[in-house]
Every structure is written in C-alpha cells, then in structure tokens.
Amino acid sequence: MLTGKQKRFLRAEAHHLRPIFQVGKDGVNENMVTTINEALEKRELIKVTVLQNCLEETAEVASALVEGTDSELVQVIGHTIVLYKPSIEKPTIQLP
C-alpha cells in the first residue's frame, strides 16, 4: 500500500505523462492486462484513458486493471487512470 505522501509524489511524476493505453467498448481483457503489465515493468508509472464508448465505469476499469496487473492505483481523474508498479528488474522511481 502507498502512503498519502507517496501517492502525492507519484501524481506529480505522472502529471506530464501522456496516456499510453485506451480502454474502449470491449472493456478490460486478458490481452490488455498482459500488455499493461509489460509496460508497467518498463515504465513503472503509466496513464490509461477510458474512452467515452466504454460500457464500464472508470472506477470498474481501474479496479479490474489493479487486480489484473497487481499494481497500485495512484489516481482516477475524469476518464484517466494512473497506475504504479515497481519494476522487478530495474526500479527507477525512488519513493519518498
């Protein structure tokens, strides 16, 4: 679990990032979870956008991604989800 201070730090780090994944009308599937997990291993901190045509709520998508990737939910703002998972091979983000 992340502390409030760590989440605040990660939100600041994620501010300049662009979303690299989009969840559409098909919702969250295994293939998407696998690719997001690989991206988290490389980047540690990513943004995911939930498109307007998605049938699921943004909170449901966020919880499905957190469960599937075993990551931490940093923030949900509007239709954007910020996820964090420390890299096993090369950790680059040092949490306070």
Topology:
Elements: H1 4-14, E1 21-23, H2 30-43, E2 45-50, H3 58-69, E3 72-77, E4 80-84
Parallel strand pairs: 1-2
Antiparallel strand pairs: 2-4, 3-4
Domain CRM: 1-96
Pfam families: CRS1_YhbY
Protein name: Putative RNA-binding protein YqeI
Number of strands: 4
Mean pLDDT: 94
The CATH H-level homologous superfamily: YhbY-like
State the end-to-end distance: 13 Å
The portion of residues assigned to helices is 25-40%
Radius of gyration: 13 Å
Briefly note the structural class of the backbone.
alpha+beta
Count the domains.
1
Major beta sheet, strand line-up:
1-2-4-3
**Level-1 CATH class name:** Alpha Beta
Order of helices and strands: HEHEHEE
DSSP helical segment count: 3
Uncertain stretches of 5 or more adjacent residues? none
Form type: globular
Domain CRM: 1-96
Protein name: Putative RNA-binding protein YqeI
Keywords: RNA-binding
Pfam families: CRS1_YhbY (PF01985)
Describe the structure.
This protein is α+β, with helices and mostly antiparallel strands. It has one domain: 2-Layer Sandwich (Translation Initiation Factor IF3). It contains 3 helices and 4 strands; from the N terminus they run H-E-H-E-H-E-E. The chain has helices at 4-14, 30-43, 58-69, and strands at 21-23, 45-50, 72-77, 80-84. It has a 4-stranded mixed sheet, sandwiched between helices. The longest helix is centred in the middle third of the chain and has 14 residues, at 30-43. The model has no long low-confidence stretch (mean pLDDT 94).
